Amino acid sequence: MVPVPSGRPVVRAHDLRRSYRTRAGTFRRERKEVEAVRGVSFDIERGELFGLLGPNGAGKTTTIKMLITLLLPTGGSAEVLGHDVVADAREVRRHIGYVFGGDRGLYERLSALDNLRYFAELYGVPPREQRQRIGELVEMVGLTGREKERVEGFSRGMRQRLHIARGLLHDPEVLFLDEPTIGIDPVGARELRGTIATLREQGKTILLTTHYMFEADELCDRIAVIRGGEIVAEGTPADLKQRVTAGHVVEVETFGLPETSVDAVRLLDGVRSAAVEERGQAQVLIVQVRPGAEVTSLVLGSLDGVNVGRVSSREPTLEDAYVELVSAEPAGAPA
Ligand SMILES: Nc1ncnc2c1ncn2[C@@H]1O[C@H](COP(=O)(O)OP(=O)(O)OP(=O)(O)O)[C@@H](O)[C@H]1O
């Protein structure tokens, strides 16, 4: 195990920032600067499974790319196992593995085994160790019996598990998994979560990004929710649930709900937040209620003239906490 300077976490991001320069427009090309990551800080301790959660474009991949030395930060700093990701990039790379969700990066016409042999060679795994290492990994990711088949016949879940095996060939101590279950059916995704849990049990330090709150809840020791390039909440899954377990949720099914009515509901006394979810023909208004408040009749009052269907009340879930965190107006945002 690689020693970390005493008192230092395995992964540390400190006020990490990254902007992208892009050009917009076809005729009058305008330069635009996108601040994808705006001062992100967190620590991951040895053996921890840390989740970075956020909607599309929140800055998760950009953060990971800086930590794995694929992208230079435009501000702040980060270190992995005590090595700075800019100054000691080579050292960082030696000790990390990463897996991005998606299909690319495998040789379709080679078998799983040949892919692993090829990458083992590329990653400098000593030839004497390759056979055993590959055998162990094939077993760990549940591909035993299929390893001689060509990758072109693999399902997305199988490919993703092969990606994980590939990322582990050089036995890295720290693993970065960027949306590993994206696009995989529920059974495949569950198997993959099992693989990730096994890695954690083996003592790997893992950073996982996902869009799925339940996945983070099941796997992670700690979670940071990122939105608009900033961390808006951090804690254990239980901490985050705590934020919404006081109070309840009222759901109102409507047909043809105008945005002005949603705004009116948001301003009601006792309402913490309101969001709309499309379900078939209906728009379901989901209202998070402050503890002790009773808002159903007020909500229905402000929906005067709107075609209302079923009205129900339920306990909040972790998903509600997440939706509230990622859909609230950012502090200082223009009205
Ligand atoms: N190469 C790039 N050039 C310009 N802008 C970029 C580039 N890569 C990312 N961005 C922008 O930076 C922001 C953050 O993107 P990033 O991919 O880090 O988000 P994410 O949280 O990983 O999203 P997703 O869940 O969709 O993968 C977005 O606004 C995105 O459009």
TrEMBL record:
GO biological process assignments: response to antibiotic
Occurrences of domain ABC transporter (ranges): 11-253
InterPro entries in the record: AAA+_ATPase (IPR003593), ABC_transporter-like_ATP-bd (IPR003439), ABC_transporter_ATP-binding (IPR050763), P-loop_NTPase (IPR027417)
Membrane topology: Peripheral membrane protein
UniProt keyword list: Antibiotic resistance, ATP-binding, Nucleotide-binding, Transport
Coiled coil regions in record: none
Main localisation: membrane
Subcellular location: Cell membrane
Pfam families in UniProt: ABC_tran
PANTHER family: ABC TRANSPORTER ATP-BINDING PROTEIN (PTHR42711), ABC TRANSPORTER, ATP-BINDING PROTEIN (PTHR42711:SF18)
Stated name of the protein: ABC transporter ATP-binding protein
